Amino acid sequence: MERFKIPIKVIDNIYLGDGKLVLFSGPCAAESLDLCLEVGEKLKSVCALLDISYVFKASFDKANRTSVNSYRGLGMEKGLKLLSEVKAKLNVPIVTDIHESHQAAEAAEVADVLQIPAFLCRQTDLLIAAAKTGKMVKVKRGQFMAPEDMQYAVDKIRDSGNENVCLTERGVSFGYHNLVVDMRALPTMRQFAPVVFDVTHSVQQPGGQGGTSGGQREFAPYLARAAAAVGVDGFFIETHPDPSKALSDGPNMIPLDEMNEFLKMIKDFWSLRNTLD
Which of 81, 120, 221, 250 could form a cystine bridge with 246, CB 3.0-4.6 A? Predict the structure, then answer.
C-alpha cells in the first residue's frame, strides 16, 4: 500500500514520518500539577535515552465519561493553566483533547497538538475549528468507523488549510464492553496521514465495570509489539505512578515505573520494522 508522501510537522523540531519514533504520553487526566510533573519528567528522561521524540499528554476535561458521577478533570481554565506550567517547567510540547469547537482557539494557546476524541471524529465543526488554529490535529478513529473512511476526517482538516494532521488507532467495538484492533487498519489509514497507535485505549473495556470503564493492561505489550511490527509513526500511551488510584482510565494504564522497559521493547520492534521500509 502507498503511504502519505511527506513527514508531517508536530512542532518545529518534531515530525511524524521522518524516521524517528514519536511518543504521546502522560496521565489520562490532569489530576494535579505534581502528578503531571512527575510523569512528564520521567517520560522526558526515558525518551531522551531512547532517542524518542516526546509530547506530554493530559486532559483538562474528560467529557465522555460513562457516568455523570465520574471524575472529569480540572476544567478548561484551571486545566490549561496547569498544562501551561508543565510546558514551561519541563520544556515539552503538549497534546490535549478538545470536545467542542469553541474550545479550539483557547486550547491552542497552550497545546501544540489538539486531539479529537474517537467519538467526535466525524464532527465537522470541531475538526474545522481545530484545523484553523494551525496546530497539529490528532484524530482518533471512532470505534464505529471503517479505517478507509477516516480519509474524510483528514480531508476536512486539509481542506481547512492545515496539512498537519495524523490519525490514531484505538480499536473497534466488538460486541459490548470490548474492543479489538484490526491491524489492517494501520496500513489502510497510513495511506492518508501518519498513524499513531493508542496502546492503552486499545485494551480498554468501555463501560465494562458498571458506571466506569475497565481494561486489560496485560495485553498492552502484545498489541504494542504487533503495531510496531506492522508499521506506525508514533505511539500514544497513558501512564500513572499508581493506576489503581488514577481518577480516570486506571485499569488500562501502564504503571509509570514500567514505562522504561515498555518503551525499550516498543523501540526495538519499531526499529526493526523500519529497516524493512
Answer: 250
